[in-house]
Amino acid sequence: MKNNIILIGFMGIGKGTTARAYAKKYKCFNLDTDDLIESKENRKIKEIFKEDGEIYFRKLEQECANWIEDSVTSSFISCGGGFYKVKNLKKLGTIVLLDASYNWIYKRLSTAENSKAKLKKRPLFTEPKKAKKLYTEREKFYKELADVIINVENKDLTTIIKEIHAKTTCI
Ligand code: S3P
């Protein structure tokens, strides 16, 4: 198996923030699948969904996973909330799940300083009811795929990244 850390979890749980803090503290490179897709397409996720639809976006996620499998090692990779659906996820590295209740995630997003922007850039989070349904559907799959589960509710970033580091041995 590859020596990457693959960070999965629901939208808005703080994967990007966690990944950047981890990379800085433990001196490794961090990649984000949404950023990789946006730069490959030279447009925002929101535009990709609007112009070409979700199915097309999922194809891009699979392409991204194939590229990681072929080309990326020793990196901390934060993934979009639906990236867990790619066929080769388990081949990409150690899967770490950030976990919290839906209500906690919703509160984190809606009380963030730039909450409007955070909600706006996520096409699947525009309706809280639909997002909650998605959360309920995905919860089980996230947990089945995870090698390590980190509950992040009410924990500070330093504690979270220390826990990830202690529970993984790859980077
Ligand atoms: C998605 C999550 C988003 C982004 C896209 C779809 C999902 O990433 O990939 O809007 O299906 O859960 P974040 O988890 O970083 O918000």
Model description:
- With 171 residues, the protein is of the alpha/beta class.
- The chain has one domain (5-167): Rossmann fold (3-Layer(aba) Sandwich), CATH 3.40.50.
- Helix content is 54%, strand content 13%.
- It has seven helices and five strands.
- The chain has helices at 15-26, 33-41, 45-71, 102-110, 115-120, 128-145, 157-167, and strands spanning 5-8, 29-32, 75-78, 94-99, 148-151.
- Strands 2-3-1-4-5 form a five-stranded parallel sheet, with helices on both faces.
- α1 crosses α7 and α2 packs across α3 (45-71).
- The protein starts with a strand and ends with a helix.
- The relative contact order is 0.23.
- Bound molecules: shikimate-3-phosphate.
- Residues 11-12, 15, 34, 45, 80-82, 122-124 line the site of shikimate-3-phosphate.
The CATH class is identified as Alpha Beta
Overall pLDDT level: 95
- Helix count, per DSSP? 7
Strand order of the largest sheet: 2-3-1-4-5
What would you say about this model in short?
The protein has 171 residues and is α/β, with parallel strands linked by helices.
Structural descriptors:
single chain, 171 residues, alpha/beta, 5 strands, 54% helix, binds shikimate-3-phosphate
Spell out the blueprint of helices and strands.
Layout (H helix, E strand, L loop, with lengths): L4 E4 L6 H12 L2 E4 H9 L3 H27 L3 E4 L15 E6 L2 H9 L4 H6 L7 H18 L2 E4 L5 H11 L4
Parallel strand pairs: 1-3, 1-4, 2-3, 4-5
Helix pairs in contact: 1-7, 2-3
Bound molecules: shikimate-3-phosphate (S3P).
